[in-house]
Design a protein that fits this description.
Elements (H helix, E strand, L loop, with lengths): L2 H11 L12 H13 L12 H22 L4 H8 L2 H22 L6 H26 L4 H39 L3
Length: 186
């Protein structure tokens, strides 16, 4: 074609050209169709998922942290006491259950007349419990185990005696109140 023919062609097609950009992925689709028509197989690009390696790394870190915590943690005070004196565990279980039953009974018997007595008793029991924990700590720290074990048993017995005495006093208060109520005449 001559230059004049080309110029005429462009003048004639002026304004009819498509100036729009093709949609994204057009070139890839075009090349894929071209390769399919020629029988060429292309390998697809693999997108890298970064979340998979990060999740594996986070899992490994979490497992290591949990393992470190489990294996490096020191035994609790109770576990240390049981190692030193295994019979303490059974004795404590027996006394603790007995004391807990009496505390529940004490709380059930609480009334306006006995409220102060019950509250004071619970406060004294808390002090005795704190004292018991102090004795456990002394036992673990290497104190004289026979003396400390006797003190621990005495602590339990003191708590039980305190609860029995208070429950008896509450019964006496209730009996006295009912006796006074019976003697009042209208």
């Amino acid at each position: 074609m001559s230059k004049d023919n080309l110029d005429e062609l462009f003048e004639r097609l002026q304004g009819g050209f498509d100036l729009e950009e093709p949609t994204s992925g057009h070139q890839d689709r075009f090349l894929e169709k071209l390769n399919q028509s020629k029988g060429v197989v292309t390998l697809q690009k693999r997108r890298t998922n970064w979340w998979k390696p990060f999740s594996v790394a986070a899992s490994v870190v979490l497992i290591c942290a949990l393992g470190l915590k489990v294996f490096s943690s020191q035994p609790s005070l109770k576990e240390q006491v049981v190692e030193i004196a295994p019979e303490v565990s059974q004795t404590e279980f027996y006394f603790a259950n007995l004391i807990e039953e009496q505390v529940q009974e004490l709380k059930q018997m609480k009334s306006p007349e006995t409220a102060r007595l019950v509250d004071d008793t619970l406060l004294q029991l808390k002090k005795l419990e704190d004292n018991y924990q102090h004795l456990e700590q002394e036992l673990v720290n290497g104190g004289n185990s026979k003396i400390i074990l006797n003190a621990m048993i005495t602590n339990f017995q003191t708590r039980i005696d305190l609860l029995k005495e208070v429950l008896t006093n509450i019964e006496n208060i209730k009996n006295l109140k009912s006796y006074n109520d019976e003697n009042i005449t209208i």
